[in-house]
Design a protein that fits this description.
The chain is α+β, with helices and mostly antiparallel strands. The protein is built from 4 helices and 11 strands; from the N terminus they run βββαβββαββαβββα.
Length: 186
Amino acid sequence: MLNYNSPINDQKEYSEIRISEVEPILKLNLRGKKRDFMTKIGKELSIIPPSDPNTSSGNEKFNILWLSPDEWMLYSNDKSDLNNTNLLEEKLFNEVSKSKIGSITNVSDHWTMLNIKGKNTFDLLSTGCPFNFNDFKNTKGAVAQTLVNHIDVIIHNKDLNNLNLFVRRSFANHLWSWLNDSSRFF
């Protein structure tokens, strides 16, 4: 991981919404189609990448988000020890990329992860997003790729009114400002 300088490094609380940037954590892009790819990932992480669209799978250490039929994003649940992170990335790279059964790419510095909690979470997102959250908000582990205020995001429904929102680092400040401005009306 590069020397990460957080674009936000802040936390805001409003009456029914709490928005915070999650400290830099491991994020890997996983790509592959072969059965060996799924087996290696499952063996190393103790998680099988989800095969159903817009779903996730996870355990106490990691979550894997479905992005396309042959692409997933792996992210850690906690800021982990840098040595363990590097070892995991290196091991996956050696097992998957070097053996040419798939691709492992570190995207930790590419995505900023925001956590949004609170009763009005989906009302806030609905004001700047064309996505219909009716089924999504009641489905723990659901994943959506959509736009929020014209910015590409990946949304992971962690639990009831608890979301992780991934935004490209270059757009993080803009989205952060919009979320804060919009949150004041709820």
